[in-house]
Amino acid sequence: MTERIVVVGAALLDGGRLLAARRSAPPELAGRWELPGGKVEPGETPEQALERELREELGVDAEVVERVPGEWPLKAPYILHVWTVRLRPGSAEPAPLEDHDALRRLAPDEIWDVDWLDQDVAAVREVVARLRSTEAC
């Protein structure tokens, strides 16, 4: 059995809005939207990988809050795990630096206005369900 490689995704929430990043590369993914993140490198925890990826991709200093329940298959051997994250005080505003050409902060009623990557759809649904349940409290 091939060992699974974890890809981490960030549900960056700010004021009830979810940050979405539009891919600029590779060509087959360009123009579609995703939760920012990337592969966990050897010797990293998923949380460390997510903080590193967000620094590299968006230029932000983010803090991992909690794991969103579930895991979602990507192209073998990759599997997606998602965490909620927030910007640390004093962090720069997110900017598309690497592999992205646009960012949007989506309110709950705008979540499906963008063309999400197929593999992110189920994870985004779970994040939205969690957002709605915390709003109800």
UniProtKB/TrEMBL annotation:
Superkingdom assignment: Bacteria
Protein species of origin: Streptomyces brasiliensis
GO molecular function, one term: 8-oxo-GDP phosphatase activity
Nudix hydrolase domain segment(s): 3-133
Catalytically driven reaction(s): 8-oxo-dGTP + H2O = 8-oxo-dGMP + diphosphate + H(+)
Xref: CDD domains: NUDIX_MutT_NudA_like (cd03425)
Assigned protein family: Belongs to the Nudix hydrolase family.
Keywords: DNA damage, DNA repair, DNA replication, Hydrolase, Magnesium, Metal-binding, Mutator protein
Assigned EC number: 3.6.1.55
Needed cofactors: Mg(2+)
GO process annotations (BP): DNA repair; DNA replication
Name listed for the protein in its UniProt record: 8-oxo-dGTP diphosphatase
